[in-house]
């Protein structure tokens, strides 16, 4: 069984991944943010490093998911390869931070490799407003995230809504993060777990 949690920067993906993995006894899989050699440079100069960053993410995430799926484990994944293409790369292109030539090259690579992996059995989307995202980003205090612009987060949200609105690769569960505090409220976490288990096991 493969669950995946998607959502904007600061939506709470890692926290929910950790809590669900413990509850379901699934193997958690986290985004390798700290090992990305381009991330800090990207936030300092997005236009210069956008293509490099996205290619690094695409390659590392593809290799990771191929390895995981070959092992046949029960897992819950923090962010997916689909977001790399449909959210981040497309948004960088729209904002003029990735050239048309680089975006076309990137998109072609993505389309070539996507056929080699299976979509998750359940996609869980954490929907969060920009104020909620900013609050969470400030709380965790990562230096390289301090320069993230509000308009950047807003545009990413628009991309997520567009992608999720057209998602048809499998089961989908949308969770409104603005009205749930699963990090600190066990009752809220219980509600989410109930919805996820209903999707997984067909419970009512």
From TrEMBL:
Residues 4-197 form the Deoxynucleoside kinase domain. CDD domains: dNK. The keyword Kinase applies. Keywords: Kinase, Transferase. GO terms for molecular function: kinase activity. Gene3D superfamilies: P-loop containing nucleotide triphosphate hydrolases. The keyword Transferase applies. PANTHER family: DEOXYADENOSINE KINASE (PTHR10513:SF35), DEOXYNUCLEOSIDE KINASE (PTHR10513). This is Deoxynucleoside kinase. It comes from Sphingobacterium griseoflavum. The lineage of its organism: Bacteria, Pseudomonadati, Bacteroidota, Sphingobacteriia, Sphingobacteriales.
